[in-house]
Amino acid sequence: MGKPVTRGVHHVGLSVTDLDASCSFFCELLGWEKVGGNSAYPAVFVSDGSVMVTLWQAKQPPTAKPFDKNNNVGLHHLAIRVTDLDTLDTIYQKLAAAENVDIEFAPEPLREGPTIHMMCYEPGGIRIELIVPA
């Protein structure tokens, strides 16, 4: 097989039910920066300096259907790399204390380890994995 003709992910676009709450999840809880937006769409662009996520406001939030990871084709989860275990623990504590974040499971080994990860749902219901690779 030849060399890949692509070079990494430029951005990931996520439809959310509450643009402000999802933006706060990334910026206030994870420390990302708002790097742009489009009020006509509406959308907000957030970045951690390595990846950009576009948050798009669903047109009809009350009737928007949440993704079912077991029965739908689409984004199963977004995995975000964390630098070390202390940082992952700090993030976990912040997320656990947040009112609109659901924790699926606390930091634990992935399979037998040594990689450690956790899963949560941001305010719009998108499944987020935070992972410290081995």
Describe this structure in words.
This protein has 2 helices and 8 strands; from the N terminus they run βαββββαβββ. By secondary structure, the chain is an alpha/beta fold. A hairpin with a 4-residue loop joins strand 3 and strand 4.
Layout of strands and helices, then pairs:
Blueprint: E1 11-16, H1 19-29, E2 33-38, E3 43-47, E4 52-57, E5 78-81, H2 85-97, E6 102-109, E7 116-121, E8 127-132
Parallel strand pairs: 1-4, 5-8
Antiparallel strand pairs: 2-3, 3-4, 6-7, 7-8
Give the termini separation. Answer: 28 Å
What order do the strands of the largest sheet run in, or round the barrel if closed?
A: 1-4-3-2
CATH level-two architecture? Roll
Order of helices and strands: EHEEEEHEEE
Question: Which runs of at least 5 residues are low in confidence (pLDDT < 50)?
Answer: none
Name of the level-1 CATH class: Alpha Beta
- What structural class do the secondary elements suggest? alpha/beta
CATH topology: 2,3-Dihydroxybiphenyl 1,2-Dioxygenase, domain 1
Task: Tell me the quaternary state.
Answer: single chain
Helix content: 10-25%
DSSP helical segment count: 2
| Residue share in β-strands | 35-45%
